[in-house]
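Subgroup meeting minutes
Present: P.N., E.W., G.H.
Scribe: E.W.

1. P.N. recapped why we're keeping a running log of single-chain structure predictions: easier to compare across weeks, and new members can see raw inputs and outputs side by side.
2. G.H. added today's entry (424 aa).
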Amino acid sequence: MKRPSFFLSSTIYDLRDLRGAIKFHLEEQGCQVMASEFNDFDKPVDVHSYEACLRAIDSCDYYVLLIGSRRGGWYDPAKRISITQQEYRYARALSDTGRIRLLNFVRADTWTFRESYKACKRQLRSDGVDETAISASLDKTSPFAEDPAFVTAFIDEVSRNEETKQALKTGSAMPAGNWINIFSGFRDIADTLRTVLPMGLPVDEAAFRQAVRHELGQILSLGLIKHRGTVEAPKHYIDRFDAAFTSPVDLRNEMSHRVPEREWDGLSIAALWLTGRRFPLTVLPDALSSPTFLRFDPTGGGIIETEFFQAIHRLIQEIRAANDAIDRSVHRLIIGYNPKSRYRTPGDTFAVATGDLVTVLHFAYRCSNIIELAAALTEGLDSGNFKWPDLKPWSPIADQEGLIAEEGANKSDIDAFLARRRAI
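Output recorded in log:
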């Protein structure tokens, strides 16, 4: 993905620290920043530095203009065009063709000085003072402005007030890119820059979230079942079977179980549909090693897992188990109980070997959980709030979940084991 690129344009001497802060901030968001005083700025030896800066603007998505109290060096002394002003005019021409976006900032005390300067000029003119005397009185370098007349005129140029007046008079199109953002400190600039960055997130994180969302969309596309124009989740068919089949699955005492015929057929059709697909696992595993879905805990000083992270971890487990069941040809087992080949006795039920029942239900449960988790994660990415869906148990065997939990080592058991090792 091409990273958003920014060109910083301003006088450097008085705004060096601010430029450095902006560059660092934007690069932390995954952006590319071009600022001529830094070593990573391209400095071709075959052109003048002024020309190199203009070329750099050509390749950027955003032009950031910072106006302070200094004029800076001249680009064209005879025409009183400064280097920064020429960069602005070059960028504005590109902006008028839609090739770049302008972000204009003026320091708050400079803006206040400009208003006072213009108010004083108006008052002196109304008092009958001639222009030469006004210039001699006001257009002097002061602690607030190096070149008051130039700085004031430059801000007027950026605000494009005269062009706006002319457009209103003639009915022509209004000039674009004339917003001026007043700033007192870096935070004001950062707040404005945040409005142009995607989702208010660092670009790399926003791109990764989009990649995760895309893979979740692929999973939903593969796992949702379309029947007679209506899309249903696998859980719909599994819930119907579970509601009709009320007997606990017992591996130890039952060689087979009688299952409701109609609900089994609905479950089988759904399962056969799903055995023809393999759920992708390209982007999701990277989420477990990415900070995107982790959170810093200021109280404990550590990193904690968010519910997004835990749900993605569970989804990966479910997908691997479902894909493994497909590899073991679960579809052949399902076909073995189709209406033509299964052994039937009078009534609405028929016998299914317990091992076969467990295999089919385990696969169906995995697919149900995959779709429920993918849907919940997608909704969570869109809304910012994740809500755990209703999931099927890992095993359809009666009490198996509890037995697995009791026999396996949980976090407390692992912590106690490690503590004993450290004590040795």
